[in-house]
Write a structure and sequence with these properties.
Elements: E1 5-9, H1 12-24, E2 30-34, H2 40-43, E3 50-56, H3 65-74, E4 76-87, H4 116-125, E5 129-136, H5 139-151, H6 156-163, H7 173-180, E6 186-192
Parallel strand pairs: 1-2, 3-4
Antiparallel strand pairs: 4-6, 5-6
Helix pairs in contact: 5-6
C-alpha cells in the first residue's frame, strides 16, 4: 500500500524468512533488522517515529512489560497506535505450554497471560491510552494449533498441509467458542499515544 515498514526480531532465522517473503511479494519498502526490543530505551531513537506499531505475541516473553511498552511508545508519533496481542489470562494450555513458563527471559513465556484489566493497567502505566480490546483464538483455532504443533514434530510442511483446510472452520470460532464456554486463547488491544 506504499507504507514504509520496519520489522524487528532478535531471531536471525525469522529475519531471513521475512526478507525472503518480502522479496517474493515485491515489497521494496519493507526492511528488517536484528534487534532486541528490550534495548529501545538505550538506542531506539535511531529508528525514528512511526504511525503504528504491531507488537504481536511478544510482551508475555519480557519481564519488564511496562518498560517494553514505554520503549515502543517512544517510537510512536503523537496520536499513533500500537496493536498488541498476547495470551489471555484464562486460556487453556496449548500443546505442552504449561511446561514452558519461565522466571527468566529465555524465549519462553514469563507470564501466563493478561486479563483486559491487567493489560489496560500495563498500557496506562506505559503512558498509552487503551482504545479497544478483543479476544480471539477460540476453541476451533486452539484445536487447529494443537494439531499443527503435534504434526510439526514429524514434518513442518506436512503439518501445514494437513492443517491448512482447518483454517476455514475458524470463521465459526467466535460463535462456537461463546456457546461452548471455552476461554479464548489470545487478547488483542489497540492503544493510542496521547497527542
Amino acid at each position: 500500500m506504499g507504507d514504509e515498514v520496519l520489522g524487528l526480531s532478535d531471531t536471525t532465522e525469522d529475519l531471513r524468512r521475512a526478507r525472503a517473503r518480502a522479496a517474493n511479494l515485491e515489497l521494496p519498502r519493507a526492511a528488517f533488522e536484528e534487534y532486541d526490543l528490550r534495548r529501545l530505551d538505550d538506542d531506539g531513537e535511531r529508528f525514528g517515529e512511526f504511525d503504528a506499531i504491531f507488537c504481536l505475541e511478544v510482551i508475555e516473553h519480557v519481564l519488564d512489560d511496562v518498560g517494553l511498552l514505554r520503549g515502543l511508545s517512544a517510537r510512536l508519533r503523537p496520536g499513533g497506535l500500537i496493536y498488541l496481542s498476547t495470551p489471555s489470562h484464562d486460556h487453556r494450555p496449548l500443546f505442552g505450554e504449561e511446561a514452558h513458563l519461565s522466571g527468566v527471559e529465555d524465549g519462553r513465556h514469563v507470564r501466563w497471560g493478561y486479563s483486559e484489566e491487567q493489560l489496560a493497567g500495563v498500557l496506562t502505566d506505559a503512558g498509552l491510552e487503551p482504545v479497544e480490546f478483543a479476544r480471539f483464538g477460540g476453541y476451533l483455532t486452539q484445536r487447529a494449533c494443537g494439531a499443527l504443533w503435534r504434526l510439526q514434530r514429524v514434518s513442518l510442511p506436512l503439518a501445514w498441509g494437513l492443517t491448512l483446510p482447518l483454517r476455514a472452520v475458524t470463521l465459526f470460532d467466535w460463535a462456537f467458542t461463546k456457546r461452548s464456554g471455552i476461554p479464548f486463547m489470545s487478547l488483542g488491544a489497540v492503544a493510542r499515544k496521547p497527542r
